Amino acid sequence: MNKIKHSRLLQTVFLLLLCLALVLPSALAAKTPDRAEIRVSLRRLNLTDAVWMTLEGRYLARCADGTELLLPADTNVTVFLRSGKFVLFSGAVSLSAGKKLTFLRQQEGDTVPGIRFNLQQGFYPGDLSLSVKDGAIQAVLSLPLETYLQGVVPYEMSDSFPLEALKAQAVCARTYALSKMNPDADYDVVDTTNDQVFKGLNPEYKNTALAVNGTEGLVLTYKNKLITAWYGASNGGQTELPQHVWGGDDIPACFDMTDDPWDAENPDSLVRKAVLKKDGSNLSPAFLRLLREALKSEPEMGDFDLEDDTPFRVDLIRSMQVTTPRYKEPSRLMTRLEVSFSCSAALKPGLTRPQEDGDELDIRDLMGEEPTPAPTGTPEPAAGESVPVFAGSFDVTLELFPGVLNALALSISGANNEIVTITEDDSAFTLTSARYGHGVGLSQRGAEYQAKKDNRSFEEILSFYYPGAKLKQYSGESAPLPTPDPALAVTPGPAPTATPRPTLMPVTEDLPEGAWLAEVENIDDDSSLNLRAEPSPAAEILMRLFRHQKLIVLENAEVDGWVKVKTDATEGYVMLSFLQRIK
């Protein structure tokens, strides 16, 4: 019996080991880390033909032909694009880099290597790749995903928002970034609202750091796939469906059209209001123009001149309502404004029309009160000027987008998707427009108020805006930074400086006969002087010159107040008033 039990035990162990052998590869495959570095196209820098930056931490500059230059920490670097190729200047070092130039972080203790760009506040920790596209510099920063989020969340939301709202934003931003990663493209996301705003890191944003760290790796999924976690500033009180904004049939069913009371109640949600008095006394010329155009199709107005330069007056607005939803219920995105009103207008030249009983001009009479000769505030007509005659009462329909919203200054984001509502009191109708952005997914103002007013957790906030989506842990890990080759450490480099000022171009040539040496002055430290191709403020800008840049002044230009100048790297024209002679 013991031998039989032992034999059965061995069989059982063998079967278990066989099962493990079959299962283990797939289990390991499921845990394979995804790529955790994200590539950000730096559009906000508005680079054209030059980059001024300071490298904090050691970087390896790699040229298109493989040439490498190790740059020490706190190095000022200037890169110019000339004739389609890069030229690098750093102190006494200059380097022709070809059509591509890469700055690679080098590990050095606990130092986090990063870049500061001139006139930018943020710290950009990552590798920088410069290439040429459409004749201008394309800059792409590669950095760890979680680090990237530290430079996104405080600019998509405010660092002063409640922590739970910031956590919800961090999860959305992380999910969105991962859903955009495409190894076949030149970059994954841009640093503007076309994807997500990224302005580098700022150590003052403490709440943001807590929110990103507190949700590290968490993403939103639907049926085990990442969703595109769209979000916007304010949905105007109702969430929108992605297919209404972008079309398509393959949108995950974790988005819904539902009322959002938190967004609607948040006093910081952006809205615009227009008050239209019932007596018509404060209607804008643009809104009156819309009414004129609508009346031109009314048969009763055939005897009246409705052109812009003729008298026209609204005597009474009886009712106003928004109608015709753009999408089926429960959409509250209305597209038309129906107006019931009485008006007076000028008759066409040569026509007369005796005023009949009931054609009084005054709003008080139209409302059943005793008439007076003219509405309050109506000026007396000048000699020879046409007098408006009561024309009747009409019901017209106006298009909200873009006509009414533009006429009443109700447009918020220019997307023609505002939710418009109307309230009424004894003397006026008030139109209110709300919704800043597309309205899909998380509302940042709604999330803020959920956390502030009702103390809702980030999980509850996300479940409201993405019903059916699941929170899961993303397993991506950052690749370790390379350790520099010790032999490269002897590469000559400039003396370090801690200030993120642009590297000034060298001027080492002997002065030609009649030339003199000058510095750019009379501008602020954070400003620049345009070097132009011709002595004219309308001429092509060749580059920006910064304060204290030395220049060789070659000659006075034909245009008074301009001089021709040069450095070792360039030549052009500047205004003399911004230069100071070096004695």
Walk me through what this model shows.
The structure is a single chain. With 583 residues, this protein is of the alpha+beta class. Helices cover 20% and strands 31% of the residues. A 7-stranded mixed sheet has the order 4-3-8-10-11-1-12. The protein has a 5-stranded antiparallel sheet with strand order 7-6-5-2-9, with no helix packed on it. β6 and β7 form a beta hairpin. The radius of gyration is 34 Å and the shape is flat.
Overall geometry: flat
- Number of E-state strands: 31
The gyration radius over C-alpha positions equals 34 Å
Number of helices: 12
Quick one: biggest sheet?
Answer: 7 strands, mixed
Low-pLDDT segments, ≥5 res: 1-35, 357-364, 369-379, 483-502
Relative helix content: 10-25%
Distance linking N and C termini: 109 Å
- Helix and strand content put the structural class at alpha+beta
User: Order of strands in the sheet with the most strands?
Assistant: 4-3-8-10-11-1-12
Tell me the β content.
25-35%
Mean pLDDT over the full residue set: 84
